[in-house]
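User: I've been trying to design a sequence by hand for this structure and keep getting stuck. Would you show me what you'd pick, starting by listing the structure so we're on the same page?

Assistant: Good idea, let's start from the same input. This is the structure you sent:
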C-alpha cells in the first residue's frame, strides 16, 4: 500500500481538527488559509481514510470536522470553562440546554438572556413530566429554592459559554454576572447558517429516538441515511469489513491507545498486515507516532496538537503517583490492581522518601485512586465495575519510568520524584 503523506502545514491543521473539530478564520487565520489551499486533499483524506466529513463554510469563515464514532469515548466531550485547570466534562443537562438554546436561536437569531431563559423554561416545563427534558426552574418561588434557581441559571450560562467557545454565537456582556443578577441585560446573537453547520447527524425526530433503547442512540445518530439508521442496518455496518476498518482507524487517530483485540472478529483489523500498514500510514501522514506491540498500540503526538492530554508531563503529586504506579505495573504479575495494593506501594515509597506526597500522608487511598485515574485517562488502566479495582492493559509494558533526584536513593523498584522520564520499550 502506498504511503499517503500530507503536507506538514496541512498535517498540522488536520491534527488541530482532530482535537477541536473546527478552525475559524477569525481566531486562527493561518490554519484557515492552509485548509483553504489544501481543501480538496484534506477533505478527501478524512473521507476516504476515516469516513469523516470536512465542511468548509466560506460565508461564516468556519471549517468544521464532523467526526462520527459508534464507540464514543466516555472521557471526551465539551469541557466547562473555568479559571484554572482543564475544567470538568459538561454534564448531560448542560448539553441538553445547549441544544435547546440552539433551537431558540434558530427561531430568533437575536434574543435577550431573560427571554431565552423564559423560552427554555417553557419548553422544559412541557416535557419535564415525561422525563424527556430536565426540569428547568429559574425563579425562586414556592417549591423552588433560591439555590436551585441559581443552579439552573448557572447551567444555561455554561451551555451558552460552550456555544460561544465553538464560535456559534456572540454575547455582548458578562455571562457570569447573569448567574446571580436576575436583572442583568445580556443579548445573544447567532447566525442561522452557522447553527445549521453545527449538527451533522440526522434529525432526532426523524430517527424516532424516543422509541429506541438508549444504548442504540449513538449508533443511530452516526448513521449517514435513514435506512442505515435501522438497528439491523447498524449491526451489519459495524460488523462489515468497512465498518471494522473505520472503527479501528478512528481509534488509532483519535485515542491515545488502541487494542487490536477489541474487534468482533477472531482476527482484529489491526492484527492483519493490511490493517497494520494502513493504520501506520495514516498515523505517519498526520505526524503521529505509533508504538506497536502485537497486543497493543500506543499513539502519541510529539507536537501536542492532536490532544490536550499531557501525560506524563507535570509535577503535581497525582501525576508523580501515577508514574510511580506505572513503574510497578509491568512487574505486578496480575491482570488487575486494587486500590489497596496501590496504597501499600505508596506506603513503601513514603518509608523511603518521607517528604514525598506529604499532603496525602493521612489520605493515601485518595492518592491511589487519583493516580489510577491518571492512568485510566492515558489508556494504561481500564475501569471495572468495582471503583477500587482496575484492569491492567498491555500498554504498561511500553513504558520505563526513571526517577531523578538530588540525593542518591535507596535501591528499590518503587521510586518517584518530580522529574520522571518515561521511555518506550521497543516493540
Amino acid at each position: 500500500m502506498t504511503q499517503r503523506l500530507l503536507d506538514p502545514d496541512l498535517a498540522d491543521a488536520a491534527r488541530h481538527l482532530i482535537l477541536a473539530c473546527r478552525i475559524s478564520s477569525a481566531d486562527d487565520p493561518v490554519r484557515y488559509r492552509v485548509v483553504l489551499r489544501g481543501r480538496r486533499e484534506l477533505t478527501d483524506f478524512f473521507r476516504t481514510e476515516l469516513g469523516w466529513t470536512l465542511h468548509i463554510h466560506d460565508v461564516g469563515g468556519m471549517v468544521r470536522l464532523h467526526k462520527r464514532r459508534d464507540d464514543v469515548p466516555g472521557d471526551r466531550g465539551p469541557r466547562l470553562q473555568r479559571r484554572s485547570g482543564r475544567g470538568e466534562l459538561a454534564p448531560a443537562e448542560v448539553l441538553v440546554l445547549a441544544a435547546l438554546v440552539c433551537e431558540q436561536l434558530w427561531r430568533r437569531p437575536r434574543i435577550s438572556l431573560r427571554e431565552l431563559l423564559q423560552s427554555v423554561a417553557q419548553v422544559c416545563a412541557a416535557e419535564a413530566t415525561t422525563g424527556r427534558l430536565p426540569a428547568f426552574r429559574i425563579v425562586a418561588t414556592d417549591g423552588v429554592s433560591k439555590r436551585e434557581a441559581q443552579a439552573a441559571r448557572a447551567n444555561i450560562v455554561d451551555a451558552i459559554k460552550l456555544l460561544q467557545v465553538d464560535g456559534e454565537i456572540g454575547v455582548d456582556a458578562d455571562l457570569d454576572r447573569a448567574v446571580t443578577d436576575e436583572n442583568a441585560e445580556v443579548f445573544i446573537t447567532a447566525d442561522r447558517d452557522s447553527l445549521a453547520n453545527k449538527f451533522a447527524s440526522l434529525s432526532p425526530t426523524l430517527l424516532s429516538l424516543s422509541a429506541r433503547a438508549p444504548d442504540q442512540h449513538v449508533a443511530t445518530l452516526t448513521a449517514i441515511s435513514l435506512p442505515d439508521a435501522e438497528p439491523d442496518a447498524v449491526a451489519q455496518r459495524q460488523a462489515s469489513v468497512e465498518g471494522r476498518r473505520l472503527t479501528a482507524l478512528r481509534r488509532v487517530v483519535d485515542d491515545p491507545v488502541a487494542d487490536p483485540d477489541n474487534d468482533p472478529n477472531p482476527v482484529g483489523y489491526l492484527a492483519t498486515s493490511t490493517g497494520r500498514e494502513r493504520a501506520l500510514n495514516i498515523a505517519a501522514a498526520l505526524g503521529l507516532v505509533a508504538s506497536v506491540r502485537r497486543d497493543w498500540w500506543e499513539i502519541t503526538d510529539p507536537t501536542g496538537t492532536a490532544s490536550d492530554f499531557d501525560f506524563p508531563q507535570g509535577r503535581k503529586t497525582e501525576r508523580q503517583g501515577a508514574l510511580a504506579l506505572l513503574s510497578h505495573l509491568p512487574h505486578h504479575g496480575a491482570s488487575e490492581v486494587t486500590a489497596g495494593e496501590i496504597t501499600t506501594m505508596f506506603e513503601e515509597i513514603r518509608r523511603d522518601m518521607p517528604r514525598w506526597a506529604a499532603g496525602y500522608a493521612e489520605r493515601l487511598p485518595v492518592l491511589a485512586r487519583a493516580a489510577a485515574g491518571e492512568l485510566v485517562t492515558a489508556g494504561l488502566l481500564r475501569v471495572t465495575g468495582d471503583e477500587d479495582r482496575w484492569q491492567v492493559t498491555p500498554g504498561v509494558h511500553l513504558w520505563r519510568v526513571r526517577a531523578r533526584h538530588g540525593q542518591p536513593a535507596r535501591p528499590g523498584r518503587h521510586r518517584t520524584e518530580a522529574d520522571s522520564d518515561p521511555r518506550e520499550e521497543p516493540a
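That's my pick for every position. To get oriented when you compare it with your attempt: Residues 92-198 form one domain. DSSP finds 16 helices and 14 strands in the chain.
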